[in-house]
Structures are given as C-alpha cells and as structure tokens.
Write a structure and sequence with these properties.
Blueprint lengths: L1 H14 L13 H27 L8 H6 L2 E27 L10 E25 L13 E2 L6 E3 L18 E9 L10 E4 L1 H8 L6 H6 L7 H13 L2
Parallel strand pairs: 4-5
Antiparallel strand pairs: 1-2, 2-5, 2-6, 3-6
Length: about 240
C-alpha cells in the first residue's frame, strides 16, 4: 500500500512541476535547497489562489464565521487522484496554519497528502482542498505521527454559505470540515483514508533549520516569514467574519 502511495505522490509532483528530475542533475546542495524554497513559495501562492477559488464559488464557499471560529487550516492547492485498474490513490502537497493566541494566523508548515486504494477504478482528478480544524492541537503533532482522516480524526463536508448571510450562528459539528473544487472523471472528492504527513525537507529548506518542528515554525518564527505568507494571511483575514 505504501508503494502505491509513493507512486501517486511522485506522479502528483510531476504533474504540478515538482523537482523530482533534480535527482539526476549534478546540482549543488545550495541550488537544490533554492529550488525547494522556490517550490515552497509557489505552493503558498497556489494556496492563496485555491482559497480565492473556493471562496468565490457559490457552491463551495466557506461561511466566514467558520473561518473565524477555526483554530487551524490546511490548504492543498493541487491534490491529484489517479487510478488505473485495481491500483489507485491520491497525493499532493499543501500547507497548515494555526490561529495564535493573539488571534492572528501563524506561518505555515508544509504537509503531504497520500492514500492508496485497491479496487477496480479508472480515472484522474485534480482538486483544491481546504480543511478547517476545530482544534489546532490536532495538527500540532504531525512531525511525530501521520494523521489519517476519517480514522484518527473525523472529517465531514462543511456547510456552504452560497451567498447567504444567515450562517453567522454555525458551529463546528465535526473535528474537521472539508471544502473542495475539482475537475476530472471522479465524482466528488473523498478524503476519508487520506494520510497527512509532515514534509520535513521542505520545512527545513524554507525556514533554514535542521529538523525544524511545527512548534518552532508556529510559535518561534517571526510572522510573516516572507511576502507570500503575508499575502496569504491578508487573504484569510479578508474572508473572516
């Protein structure tokens, strides 16, 4: 199963302009780190675009009151689901942020989403996914253990605003609310069984540390870490109630 997941993640990175081909080139360590940092900032920019796309979609728009009440958010701007015959899975890369004690959003840390599946399937799908977390503690320990959606923690499709102003009294009835926009041959987006993993390499490269933990990124780094993060935080603040 893990082999299938790795293959899907590799394919997703290739589709999204990943840096897998760098393995075969004689680049220096510094140039490879620079490449990873550029890809990290690109993921942050794409995360802001995914947020805009979902919030401007009347069928998927997140009620602003739920963004205000959430303590954590995960944005996967390029999640890919692929299946051929009996092998299938999904994979992608994204970011996680939490709400700090002062009410502001933290710097992001980077995650990977993977899942393997067995059963006859055929198709491909690309989706933008946003997960709102009721409790920030649920994503704080991802450097120590992966998080399986629907198993380790409950996930449900979130209520949408559809341009209505009557959503200010909404409350979290699930540990995670999910929102998505997708294109492809699969019907809908299913995240149950998806595994969120901490991406140590990207986090170390962006924050220029070795074995940097979520706690250090979220609580001990100056916010925002760069202009891309500043723009994303500004967008999140704009969409809150």
């Amino acid at each position: 199963m893990r082999t299938i997941t790795h293959l899907i993640l590799a394919t997703a990175l290739l589709f999204s302009g990943g840096t897998l081909s760098a393995v075969s080139r004689p680049d220096t360590a510094d140039s490879r780190t620079d490449q990873i940092v550029r890809k990290a900032n690109e993921t942050i920019r794409h995360s802001m675009m995914a947020l805009d796309n979902i919030m401007n979609d009347p069928e998927n728009s997140i009620p602003p009151s739920l963004i205000t009440r959430s303590e954590g958010i995960v944005i996967m701007p390029g999640n890919y689901k692929l299946a051929v015959g009996i092998a299938g899975g999904q994979g992608g890369r994204g970011i996680a942020m939490i709400r700090l004690e002062d009410g502001n959003w933290s710097n992001p840390f980077f995650l990977s989403l993977g899942e393997g599946s067995i059963g006859f399937q055929l198709g491909a799908q690309k989706s933008e996914v946003i997960l709102l977390f009721r409790n920030k503690e649920d994503i704080m320990g991802l450097d120590r253990a992966d998080l399986t959606l629907g198993s380790d923690i409950g996930v449900a499709a979130g209520p949408v605003s559809k341009g209505s102003s009557s959503t200010s009294d909404l409350r979290f009835e699930s540990e995670i609310y999910s929102y998505s926009r997708s294109s492809g041959l699969f019907a809908g987006v299913s995240l149950k069984g998806g595994v969120l993993s901490y991406n140590q390499r990207i986090n170390d490269s962006l924050y220029q540390m070795i074995d940097v933990s979520p706690e250090v990124i979220l609580y001990q780094t100056e916010v925002p870490v760069n202009y891309e993060v500043d723009d994303l935080i500004t967008a999140l603040d704009m969409y809150e109630e």
